[in-house]
Structures are given as C-alpha cells and as structure tokens.
Amino acid sequence: MKNFIGSLIIITVLTLFPAVVNFGQTVTDFDGNVYNTVTIGSQTWLKENLKSLHYCDGTEIPEVVPYNNLDSLGEIYGLLYTWNAAMKGTTDPGAQGVCPCEWHLPTSAEWAELENFLGGSLVAGGKMKDTTTGFWQSPNTQADNSSGFTGLPAGEYDVNQGIFQLLNQYAVFWTSTSVSASKANERYLAYNNAASNSYDWYKTLKYSIRCIKNEVSDTKETGNNSRPNEFQLFQNYPNPFNPLTRIEYQTGYPSPVDLRIYDSLVREVAVLVNEEKASGRHYVNFNGYDLASGIYFYQLRAGSFVETKKMILMK
User: Fold this and answer.
1) Helix orientation angle between 121-128 and 108-117, rounded to the nearest 10 degrees
2) pTM confidence score
3) Among 4, 30, 98, 185, which is 20 to 30 Å from 57 by CA?
4) Could you tell me which CATH number the domain at 2-14+234-313 has?
C-alpha cells in the first residue's frame, strides 16, 4: 500500500493527461480532395463531409450532387449521396463504399459508440456541431464542437419531391446499416436540439457522408493466433468529466483484470472490472453522479502489470 500511495502522490503533481481527441492528420481521396481527420476515443473520423466524385478504385460515383447543384456549396458542405451509391451497390455493414481507401461508411453501432463516448445521444449532437458563425441557423442548441467532429448542416435532397431542403438546419449522414430493402439508418444533427438523432428512412434520399477509418489492430502473429503487443491503460475521456467518462484498457493476453477507482485519500470508490478478460481492447463507462467534485484515480491490475492514472470530476 505504501508503494501505491507513493505512486499516487507522484501522479498528483502531474498535469492533466489530454483527452483522447487528436487532430492534424489528413487523408486524400481519388479526386485529390484532402480531408482533415479527428480521433475521438478509439475511432478516427473525417472532420469534413465527403466530396468524392469517384470511388477509391476510380469508378465514377452515380447520383451524387452538391446542394442546389451549386459547386460552391459542395466545396463548403460536401456532396450528397443516395444510400446505394454511397454503398457502391452492396448492403454489407461497414462497407468501404464511397470512402477513401482504408476507410468505410460507419455502421449504426459505430455511430452509437461515438455518441456514447460523447455522453450519450441526447447531448452528443451539441458536441459534434460546428460553431462557426454563418453555417448553423440560430439557436444551434448547445453547440460547442468539443469533440472536434465539426458537423456542418448540409441539408438533403429529397428525390421523391425533387427538392433540396434543410440547408443550415440539419446535418444528415447515412450509416452503412440497412434496415429493409427500401430503408437504411441515418444520423442527423439539428439546429434546435443537442441530440445526435437516429432515424430509418428511404435509401433514395441524398445525404452527407462521414467516413470512419478501418481499425488497424496492434497485434503480432504467434502461430495461428494474434494478440495485442502489451497491456496498456488509456486516459479516460472526457477529462474533466461530469458525471460520465469512459476508461479504455488493452490486455496483451487472456488474464484476470482488476480495474478500480480511488479518491485522493486512496479510499476505494468503485470496482469497475474484476474478471478474466480475453486479449484485446476493452472499455468501461464510469458514472460519478454520487461523488463529490475532485481528483480521482483509476488503477488497472492484470497479472504483473499495474498502472494508475488520474482524472477529475468537475460538477
């Protein structure tokens, strides 16, 4: 216990670890469009709406248009795609479709992971909406773009009515999750609420596309098996948090895992994990709703591996 207390004392003098949101990388599509990216938690997303006129293999994308057929708006808001065109004719969840090589259309489950990481679907939209003046119609409810997603209200093209609509009011994105022969799941952000909304609608409508990077497993081959190279405890996100935060960790091989929360006096607050875990990357959500504001610590034990990190609850 003395060694653990000493470790905590050392950690308390360190500055906060950054939240798991990283910027600066870019990706280029077949047409030469360069997109900024943002890593939110364990996912990496395009930070801009897709503008591609060709698939990764150079094939021309059908039925793609800019809003009001104006290239100037396409440069700002990206292009609008039917679901079938976006998927390149397949119905497989997670298909590459119109996305750049090594990227794909997010599934509904991947959108849900993003929403949960940002505190839940009821507030995630505000954290995803751009705050630049002139894009979103007022009141742009609870928009702060704290995720870096930079969602823009590109509207939609309703093929059934033959009209463009909802520019500056709604950002509507196709997922790669089909729900029937005629409908697929979409996500939309609205100018007048803070949610990331889920809806199933007709595949013939034309919406924006945000791509997500294919997962690259940090593994090494051992015979016919693969596993992460090491154990690792990641910084929680968001940090500071109120009251929800997510803690991720990686196990190098199947092992008993113990993950606990302590307060600044080294008193145990919660046991988050205490069981055998397979090799791979795992996460758990922690809710500090009944705790006071302050500094807390979370510690991972797995075999001989022990690591502790600091987090702040700020109410």
Assistant:
1) 80
2) 0.65
3) 185
4) 2.60.40.2550
